[in-house]
Design brief:
Layout lengths: L1 E4 L4 H13 L4 E4 L12 H4 L9 E3 L5 E3 L1 H11 L10 H22 L1 H9 L5 H22 L13 H15 L8 H11 L2 H6 L9
Parallel strand pairs: 1-2
Antiparallel strand pairs: 1-3, 3-4
Helix pairs in contact: 1-3, 1-7, 4-6, 4-7, 7-8
The structure holds glutathione.
């Protein structure tokens, strides 16, 4: 399989973690999102993902999957061990809710495209954009902090897709200097996850395209 990725993309980071947890081999194809206008906008990449975003996972038969949560579901369906969702249906819904707070409520408001739009089209200055970024991470993290109980992972002794989404979002929050003092449970989950080789190998700084 080939993963189209960018070291700092938190959506690609989620898929790297999932592939590593499943022990699946993959080649990485770095797509630089800012250099030279962004390689995601070049025709070669648009042929892979017309949405011009990473991650994209090219399967060995040439099929391409996009959207990190859809890719992770696919991997979990095809390679059920270790499972990324609990067996109990109620617990599954709770785990998915955390993953979706990150992937549907925090990340879409704060990804590179949105921040660039605020700057270039809406003419906001960097301080206003930072305030925007901090606000949406903090709102999402408040909701997550209220419902998780590290044990040591977000939902007990087994890593789930909630952890897979949370760790990259914490990385982004730290990079953008969002204060995390009010979120000790999230910080503890992040620390527990990053002790696992699958998470460590997926870290942005451990990627071949890291800068
Ligand atoms: N919902 C998508 C989000 C993908 C996404 O927005 N990726 C960002 C990087 S984290 C991207 O490729 N941005 C392209 C750009 O900024 O032009 C997913 O979960 O895969």
């Amino acid at each position: 399989m080939k993963l189209y990725t960018y070291f700092r993309s938190s959506a690609a980071y989620r898929v790297r973690i999932a592939l590593n947890l499943k022990g699946l081999p993959y080649d990485m194809v770095p797509v630089h999102l800012t250099r030279d206008g962004g390689y995601q906008r070049k025709p070669e990449f648009m042929a892979i993902n017309p949405q011009m975003r990473v991650p994209a996972l090219e399967l060995s038969n040439g099929d391409v999957l996009t959207q990190s949560l859809a890719i992770i579901d696919y991997l979990d369906d095809l390679h059920p061990e270790p499972p990324l969702l609990p067996g109990d249906v109620l617990a599954r819904a709770r785990v998915r809710a955390i993953a979706q707070i990150v992937a549907c409520d925090i990340h879409p408001l704060n990804n590179l495209l949105v921040l660039q739009y605020l700057k270039r089209q809406m003419k906001h200055d960097q301080a206003e954009i930072d305030t925007w970024y901090h606000h949406w991470v903090t709102e999402g993290f408040k909701a997550i902090e209220a419902v998780i109980s590290p044990g040591p992972y977000a939902f007990g002794a087994h890593v789930t897709v909630a952890d897979v989404c949370l760790v990259p979002q914490v990385f982004n929050a730290r990079r953008l200097k969002v204060p995390l003092d009010a979120f000790p449970k999230i910080v503890a989950v992040d620390a527990a996850c990053l002790k696992l080789p699958a998470f460590d190998k997926a870290r942005p700084e451990n990627q071949p395209d890291a800068e």
